[in-house]
Structures are given as C-alpha cells and as structure tokens.
Amino acid sequence: MKAAIVVFPGSNRERDAVAALEAVSGTKPHLVWHRDTELPKVDLIVVPGGFSYGDYLRSGAMAAHSPIMREVKARADQGVRVLGVCNGFQIITEAGLLPGALMRNGALKFVCRVQHLRVENTDSPFTKRYAKGQIVRFPVAHGDGNYWTDAETVKRLDGEGQVAFRYVGDEARADPRGNPNGSVSDIAGIFNAKRTVLGLMPHPEDAVEALHGNTDGKPMFEGLVEALS
Amino acid sequence: MSAEATKAQERPVTAELAKEFGLSAEEYRNALDILGRTPTFTELGIISVMWSEHCSYKSSKVWLKTLPTTGPQVICGPGENAGVVDIGDGDAVIFKMESHNHPSYIEPYQGAATGVGGILRDVFTMGARPIANMNALRFGSPDHPKTRHLVSGVVAGIGGYGNCVGVPTVGGETNFHPAYNGNILVNAMTVGVAKTDKIFYSAAAGIGNPVVYVGSKTGRDGIHGATMASAEFTEDSEEKRPTVQVGDPFTEKLLIEACLELMETDAIVAIQDMGAAGLTSSSVEMAGKGGLGIELTLDTLPMREQAMTPYEIMLSESQERMLIILKPGREEVAKAIFDKWELDFAVIGHLTDTGNLVIKMYGETWCDMPIAPVSNAAPEYNRPWEPTPKASDLDDSVFNGYSEELGDTLTKLFGCPDLASKRWIWEQYDSLVGGDTRFMSGQADAAVVRVPGQTKAVAITTDCTPRYCLADPVEGGKQAVAEAWRNLSAVGALPLAITDNMNFGNPEKPRIMGQFVGAVQGIGEACKALDFPVVSGNVSLYNETNGEAILPTPAIGGVGIMPDAMIAVGIAFRGEGDVILAVGDTANPYGGHIGQSIFLREILGREEGAPPPVDLAVERRNGDFVRGLIREGLVVSSHDVADGGLIVTIAEMALAGGVGAYLTGFDGQHVRVLFGEDQGRYVLAVRPDVAATVQEKAEAAGVPVSVLGETRGTSLSGRGGEIVSLKRLREANEGWLPNYMAAEL
User: Fold this and answer.
1) What is the pLDDT of residues B627-664, one digit of tens each?
2) CATH code that applies to domain A3-228
C-alpha cells in the first residue's frame, strides 16, 4: 500500500501518522506539502491532525481551500481512499467530502483522553478488521470535535451504514464517560456514501503500539494494508 | 514617521525618568559615569531593562553562583538559553523551566500562553526539537474571588498554546494556598532533544556577519514587561495589562519547523530568541558574549504597527521572534526556508569591531553605547538577609481531640484542593501528540517520553513543597530536589540534572532574601549529594502584592533517562494478589513526621512545625535500590511517598489502577505513621513470587523494606474490615475541581 500524508502549516500529528503507517505497512508514506498541486500515485491519502493555519478561522476552513485539496478531492472522486483524522476530519468535511460540520466542543474546552468507541460498520477497508459492535479505545485530543448535522441526515447516515464509530461509556472498565464533545447522536466518525472516505475525531494512529497503552488502532491500518496492497 | 516625530515623542532624560524606568538613583549615576554623558531616551530604556532584576539577576546572582552546575553528563550549564545534558548515542536533552507569573496574574490566558511560547523558544533555539512540556502552577485560595478565573484562563492559555504547536504537555503540579492570592505562579518547562554535534549557541562571531530577524512582526506589546516583572504588585497593577504580550502558537509552530530546517544547513553562526526585553537583550547578549559590537538599522525591521520609535522597537516583547547571526553569503539559503514557512525575514544589521550597540533609524543614530561596560556594570547586590528561624517538631499532643474514622479522613484528604485530581486541568492538554508519551497524567510519578525514533526515553518531573520551604527554606530546598530525584527514580529513570525556577517575594526584605539564600543552600546540598546538577534556571522575585509575599517556591524541574520507555513503571496497582511493600526508613517504626504535613493542615487545621528533614545519603541509597529493582523487572507499581504520607500513597495507587488494598502493616500503629511525610520513601507492588527476593536484596543493600499488605478488592481494607471504598475516594478525588470550576462566582 502506498500512502500520502498531506501536511499543512500547523499540522502536528503527521509524525504520528507516518509512524503508524510505516509500522503496519513497512513502507514510508509520502509527505505532501500543502502548496504542492500534484499528489503521487497512492492508494491512501491521510489528512492528519493539528491546527492547520492555526485554525484561526473555523477549524479546517482555510486548509480546505488550499491547492492540494483540489487534488485530494479529485482522487477521492476516483475512489482513492481518504482518511481524515481530527483536524483532517474537519478539513475534509469543510472541503465537502463528508456531510455535516464540526463545532466547538459542548463544554467549550479542549479535551484529551482515552475514549471508548463502538465500531458501527465493518464493511470498509478502514474497519474490516473490527467486529461490528466491538468496543475500542482511541485517544481524543480536540477542541472542535462536536459533529453536527440535521436529524434527517443522521437518519440517512445510519440507514446507509455511513456511521463508522460512536462514542460510548464503559461501565465495566470504570469509565462511564461517553461523548466527549456533544456531537450529535454520539457520532465519532463517518464515511462517505461509498465508504471510501473516513473522517473521525479520535486518533487511531496514537493507539498502535504497546507504549500507547493499547493497540486498538492497529486493525484500522492493517485493514487498509490488506485491502489496498 | 520621521526622526522629528520620534523626537517629539521622547521625554527628557532625567533622574526622575530613570526612576520611572526602574533604575535606582545610584544605578542612574552609574549609567552617567559609564557613558560620560546623559543617555539618550532610547539608551535609557535599553539600560533600564538590561539592569532590571528580571534580566540582570542582580539580587540572586551572587547566590546562584554557589550551585553545582557541572558533571560528566553536562554539556552546557546555566548561561545559555537552556541547559544541555548528554543522554548517550550522540543525543542530548535540552531543557529549562521559566516563570511567567506577573503577566499571568494580569491576563491569565495570554500570560500563560506566552510563558509556554517563551520556554519553547529557549529550547528550540539551541537546536532541539521540543518533545514535552510540563508546568508547575500555584494559585490562591479557592475561596478567593479571582482564583477560579485565573485557573480557567491559565489552563486554557497553556493548552491553547501547547496543543497548537504540537508539543505534548505531559504533566505538572498544581497547588492552592492563600499566599498566592495576589501573585499566582505559572512556571513552564520544555524538554527537547538534539544531536550533540548540532547544538546552537548564542555567542556572536565574525565581524561583518549579517544580523537577521525572523518570525513575527514587532508591535508595541510587552514594552517594559521585564521591568514589570521586577517590581511588587500594587492595587493598580491591573492597569499594566497592556504590558502583557499576545501569543500566536501557529507562528511559533512555523518558527520551530523553519529554525530546525535552517539548522540542518550550516548557515548559522549564532541564534537566540527574543524573550524578555526583546531585541535589546538578544542583540546585546549575542554581541556581548562574542566580545563584538552590533549595528542595527531598524527601518527594514518587520513591524506590525505604524510609526514605531526605536525605543519601542528595542523594548517590545512581541512574541515568536528570533535573532540569527548568519555566515556571510547565506542570506538567500536562509530566506528561502523562511519564505517556505511564510515567516518574516529581514537582514537588520551586522556585527562590528567597535564593541558598541548602535541603533539607526530614520537616518539618525538613536543609541551608540559600549556593550561590555554596560553589561558588566549590571548591578550585583549582596542584599542583607536573615536566616529563617527554625521551627520545632510537633509532639503527639497535636492529635488531641482527633478521633475521626480513617475512611472519613481519607475521603476529606482526597477531596482537598492540593490532593484532589487535576484531571479537569490535564485533560485540556494534548498529552499524546507525537505518539511517544508512555503515561497519561496522574499515572506515574514522572512523565516518560520516548526519544523520537528510538527506544530510550526521557523522564520528567516538576516538584516543590512550598509549605516546607516557608517553614525551613534549607530543608525545603533540599526536599524539592530530593523529591524530583525520587520521582524520576520511582519510574525507573536515572536522574541526570535539574532546572530551577526560583519564585520568591521582594528580595529587598531581609526575611525574604533569607528564604532565597536558604533555598539555594538546600538545593545546592541536594544537587551535590545526588549528582544532580543545575543546568538552567530562572529567578522570579517581587512576587508580592501590597507587601504580602508568596510562599517561597523554588520549583525544580528534573530530567532523567532510561534505556527503554517500556521499562518504566507507573503508580497504578495492576491486579489482585500483589504484595505491597514500603521502602524507606521505618524508624518509629514507619516514620511519622507530622509537622507541615497535609494531614496537619487539612484535618487538624494547623500549618506549623518543622518540615520533614531530608537525609540525602538515605535518599540516594533508597532511590538507587528502587531503580535497580525496576530495571530488573521486579516491580509492578511504584510510587514515592509525598503529600499525605503512606496511606495516601497506597490509596492513590489503588485509585489509579482501580484495584484495592488489604492492609496489615499498620496494625497497632499511631495515626502519625499513616500520614507522616518522612522523606526518602516509596511504596511498591511486586508479584508474590518475587517478594522474598526483593526483601533479600533490600537486606543486602541495607534498605529497610516492610510488608504493608496486598492488592485486593475494590476498597482499602484491613483486619477490621473495609476502611473506605475506592468509589467513595474517587468521587471525592475527581469531584472537587470540576465542581469548583462549575460553581457560580
């Protein structure tokens, strides 16, 4: 699997994404600078976390208009898989690859913690290595993760299998705290209609090795490698 | 703007103006002598910040010189932007802690944010990629009307800056005490890693070499910030809000990447960030260290505001700016990198052989004075000081009338502001970015961050117990260093060196100066005994409002190393049936020093007595023993005994892991044994099959070890049944801060 990671001024989790992809696929991903207008031929495009352009406008809004995003959209239309994590989710949503919007966290504070998620749909290269309904733990670290779309769209997303992950609490592990940001219907991550694009707030790339405390994010990258190699 | 318009804004230079700028009459006379004439307005501004307490360390220098600063591991001690320590394999760790107290009280969000920005620059300016931030915060009483607002703003500011630049904030400490009502402390620490052959220093070299300005544009923010930080607060201090700088973490992130990229080339001769006193201190220090002169022409300097005067430009503390001396002919290489990162880049001058600082603008010269005499003449005071009277130890009569159930006492302690969980704070910090963080906050005695791309890891802690320092500055200073050393040992790291952030009141008062002198003495003794030298530091004096001083707070940032991040051990109990051991002196028989303890303050309502003494030889013996056990893989959980004593330590380990403890080692013991804060102690959990081995090793090493009980259930219990459930402790512990912050003013 060949992968490219798009780097904007202010991106700061590209190193984490590089490490996760390299650990699982054995191949170093390409780093593509935001001013580039061409992407190498790749099977997967990752838009990483961070604060692109400082997020001084609405999160992701500036990056969505950067030259490289036209190319990312064109590739996405051709079926190239796109993974947007955290700020990357905000950027690809602002760019129109996914429906809805990411707003300020309900509590108006940045939140960083390990969060339980439920896998809602496994019919995608991103989620095929999980079981439907499986509870996984990924860290979250964001200030603007409050996903919103109207009730009708939530219903459609559910009906079409476009909800990828939901925030859940886990009483059994003494962590009853679910939804960390007030997002509608506890949505943590969604697919596009063809399930070739995934955007999510939590960070699977920071849950891939023993040092991270759990490796629940690893199956996502393994599934991608399996599907795209 | 023109020369005429600039002159129209300048005020006549007199002794009165000098006083307004913070110079004493004697200091002003000295300036006249050095120059042989009346300084210009711009020169007076420059001299006043150079000679401010903040920049000159005039009250503290004579004492700081006594601290041990060398060792085989030290590559660069105090005097540069940050300390540099060898961690093997051609790698170095570069770190420093710095205060931003005064600005944070006046404008908590920006004050704290720019504190983080400033310390980050001190570290990456030396060639290091920052890998971790820490912070040590002290707030006033929770009942004080400003405290909630200050906590909220400071935490948001630290998070807002650190999260955006993508450096994980991996830990810290937060205390509350009424002595900080008028002066909070915001001490920020950054740790970075570099190659030992790619470390950058600030001494300028090469006559004629270009002086380059990069980063943000210069505005009028922060003018005389260093002077503000060198005086006591009064009622009208809030009017100083305009002297607080405004941070831009996005630009800082770009600046980090651009500087590190430039450092990959060989274009740089010297580099320094513009921190306190901005362009003045950076240009003067760089030229001064190189024994050269420097000539700046400010017309091309990137400015954010119109019609700025040379005085304003030289004293501005606008953030995210660096000054670089380039090798000749490398301007284009450097400019291309800063263009890529969309940062300002301007050649604003060159080095000269005159030894003078020359400032030109609008076709005229505004400053032309010799650097060395002005720098060397920076005042150095041996201020009068009084030793702090020794407090006597407390006898058992303090316990008269105490008859509370142990479970109730523990619940109260776990819900008191100093021991309550600071989750509300650290969940606002991205502690994981970079993917190298071993523990979430609260899970280990020291943060453990892997060196990127390697298996080895750096351990980091910040420590100080101000109530000990007030009661006995010498023992308190020792204790702060010893606790840092202990916390690093408790995760399995080898302690390497410290940075000290000395926060005190007004040094012109002999009682306060005595606290400073005592703390330095204690720190020095501990550093020597533990081979734990000071490699960088910062002094913040005048932390007083209307004559009320803070508790003496010499915050210590300690750094250690371990060969593999996965060796590290956290505090959490990890399962049932592990044996709980106390390591440390068991005189009495488990200790029981109750003076200045949290129990005494929170349960008995008294703040008195002598703090626990620190026996540095015992400290070292016990720490080396614990580290050795961890390195051999014999330890499941490890926690040093600090605030609250043994029983609180065990309960913290239980809460962190969600596994209780069945305690038998306290049977028949006096309550002071449970809560005494004797030093040099640890609690370990070990698998039952190695408990005997551990005890044999302890005997061989001459380290007292005793069995306290075993991990079991979901409560703390003993032969008499349940003492308190973890659920009840957790509710008290996790509830206090969020409830406090959510309450209406």
Assistant:
1) 999 999 999 999 999 999 999 999 999 999 999 999 99
2) 3.40.50.880
